[in-house]
Request: fold
Amino acid sequence: MNYQRILVAIDQSVQSKMVFETALELARKSSGQLMIFHRLSLDEPESYTYTSVQVEKIVHHYKFVQEKLEQDLEKVRLWLTGLENRAIEAGIQAEWDWKEGNAGRLICQVAKNWNADIIVMGRRGKSAVMETLLGSVSYHVVHHAPCAVLIVQGK
Reply:
């Protein structure tokens, strides 16, 4: 099959390198283009009650959280831009996107909006019990994607 629009869904896990390489090779073979997608995981700051904590401490805490968030986002932006540049250097048209929210739903939404022909992603290898209790991003995508899905099994 000749896939022209390849969505590669990655996180910053060790396995993502193999997932990206698989998508890159698929794009090379089919002269396709890549959409590199990352689901942001933003930590929400703790909530405080104004009666138990001084306002000065709250302001300081939120400034710290904001600075940390900005640093984390810059690291992710640089990482995604590096992957995009790597694909472009290999002669593959590429772009990246990130969103915050439910990973499985976001991947399917991006695939639909971008008109992807295939989604390339990894899986964590949870046991059947853990997958049932916690859910699985790859399970959700396989069952709800608007296109083909290639799951890259980690080692």
In short: The CA atoms of residues 20 and 108 lie 18 Å apart.
